[in-house]
Amino acid sequence: MQPLLELTGLTKRFGSILAVDRVGFAVARGEVVGFLGPNGAGKTTAMRMTAGFLPPDAGSARIAGFDIVDETRAAQARLGYLAEGAPSYGDMTPDALLGFVARVRGLDGATARRRRGEVVDRLSLARVLDQPIETLSKGFRRRVGLAAAILHDPEVLILDEPTDGLDPNQKHEVRTLLSEIAGGKAIVISTHILEEVDAVCTRAIVLAGGRIVADALPAELRQQAPNHNRVTVALDADHRDRLIAALRALPNIADIAEAHARDGRIRLTARPVRGAEILGAVRAAADSAEVPLDEITTEHGRLDDVFRRLTTAA
Amino acid sequence: MRTIATLTRRELAAYFASPLAYVFVVIFLTFAGGLTFYVGGFIERGQADLAAFFQFHPWLYLFLVPAIGMRLWAEERKTGTIEFLMTLPVGAGQAVTAKFLAAWLFTGIALVGTVPLWITVSVLGDPDHGVVATAYLGSWLMAGGFLAISACVSAATSNQVIAFVGAVAICFLFMMSGLDLVQAAFRGWAPDAVLQAVRDLSLLGNFDALSQGVVDARNLFYFASLIALALVVNTAIVEMKRGR
Ligand SMILES: Nc1ncnc2c1ncn2[C@@H]1O[C@H](COP(=O)(O)OP(=O)(O)OP(=O)(O)O)[C@@H](O)[C@H]1O
Ligand SMILES: [Mg+2]
Question: A5-222 falls under which CATH superfamily?
Answer without folding.
Answer: P-loop containing nucleotide triphosphate hydrolases (3.40.50.300)
